[in-house]
Design brief:
Blueprint: H1 5-22, H2 27-38, H3 44-59, H4 68-73, H5 84-113, E1 119-123, E2 129-131, H6 138-142, H7 144-148, H8 174-187, H9 194-212, H10 219-233, H11 244-263, E3 269-275, E4 288-294, E5 297-303, H12 308-318, E6 325-329
Antiparallel strand pairs: 1-2, 1-6, 3-5, 3-6, 4-5
Length: about 350
């Protein structure tokens, strides 16, 4: 395998990923850069990014048009006449399918529990993990048993382990779609120019990260889809007209995310639904407006004067040992002015 510039870059990325995994030494340098397109709360996404993209860069020569693998796959009847963009379009379909399944799992969890779809699910044991339609961790929770087997609990990498008990069997589909996207993406490189290959591999990496951690409306997913759709629509000679459809699709998803955040939020109060506790729970350190018990659910209404993220973290601490899970309504507006926690 010829050591070209892409392979050399891949080796550098793998080294960075390993350093991030083994130590926090370069985190302050890496995080400001990766946070722009990954929006990670821990270094887990950073490690995935450098290792995934690095590995694809390293093995990219094995998928060149004249390579054994490329010639072999074209001997298979379904792929006989496929070109690079056919593989890329297949990848896009599988990525979107995975995102849709993730949303269905989020909806199923809430319908099955009898709470609003527009809530954040918080599981507490062994450590707090959250998931919602806006930022889904369904598939992350599904593969957490595998991640936890080689990631230390003290590594500051969130594996979503507490979600795994609440995800139906359909969540295991991620173990099939990720390898297919990875390999399909490699076959989609074809005879593309070097910088086009970099764009495709970057888009593949962020898409796979979005599939595992974030879902359709997350930043990695939107970044990844932008690259995949853009490269699939790209034609030579270049024309901006080719990018109109991808731009419309991504703009629609961004607008959808904003609309859901704005109009599905409850700005007047927080409704906290604690599952599996058929009795009132006292939250003495909060401004509680009302408490009621319905079947095995305790529903507590809190004052809206809390930042949503800080409130979730604080409730997770307060409810530790009292409950396994709870749901909390969204309050997008809290990020622009609530000061109960500062």
């Amino acid at each position: 395998m010829k050591i070209n510039r892409l392979v050399f870059l891949g080796l550098i990325l793998i080294i960075i990923g390993l350093i991030l995994f083994l130590t926090d030494f370069i985190n302050p340098v890496i995080r400001p850069f990766t946070h722009i397109f990954l929006m990670g709360s821990s270094k887990g996404k950073d490690i995935m990014f450098f290792c995934l993209m690095g590995s694809m860069l390293i093995i990219s020569p094995l998928f060149s048009p004249k390579s054994y693998l490329n010639q072999k796959i074209h001997t298979l009847k379904p792929f006989e006449k496929w070109e690079k963009n056919d593989f890329l379009k297949m990848v896009i379909v599988i990525v979107l399918f995975t995102y849709i399944v993730g949303i269905i799992l989020e909806i199923w969890l809430r319908v099955n529990t009898g709470v609003s779809v527009f809530t954040t699910f918080v599981s507490l044991n062994p450590s707090p993990s959250t998931s919602s339609i806006l930022h889904s961790h369904m598939f992350k929770g599904a593969i957490s048993p595998f991640l936890s087997s080689f990631i230390s609990a003290n590594s500051n990498i969130h594996t979503g382990g507490s979600l795994s008990n609440y995800i139906p069997a359909a969540g295991w589909i991620i173990l099939l779609t990720i390898p297919v996207v990875y390999l399909g993406g490699m076959f989609s490189l074809g005879d593309r120019r070097e910088y086009h290959k970099l764009i495709v591999l970057f888009a593949l990496t962020t898409s796979m990260i979005g599939m595992i951690d974030g879902g359709l409306l997350s930043t990695p997913a939107l970044v990844g889809l932008s690259g995949l759709l853009g490269m699939a629509a790209l034609k030579m000679p270049f024309s901006f007209k080719n990018l109109i459809s991808p731009t419309i699709i991504i703009a629609f998803l961004i607008i959808l995310r904003v609309i859901l955040g704005l109009f599905a939020s409850v700005p007047d109060y927080y409704e906290v639904t604690i599952i599996g506790v058929p009795e009132e729970i006292e939250l003495l350190d909060y401004n509680v407006l009302s408490t009621r018990v319905v079947n095995n659910k305790t529903i507590i209404t809190l004052d809206s004067n809390y930042d949503e993220i800080y409130l979730i973290n604080d409730l997770a601490s307060s409810l530790e040992g009292k409950s396994e899970v709870f749901f909390i309504s969204w309050n997008f507006y809290s990020f622009f002015g609530n000061t109960a926690y500062s």
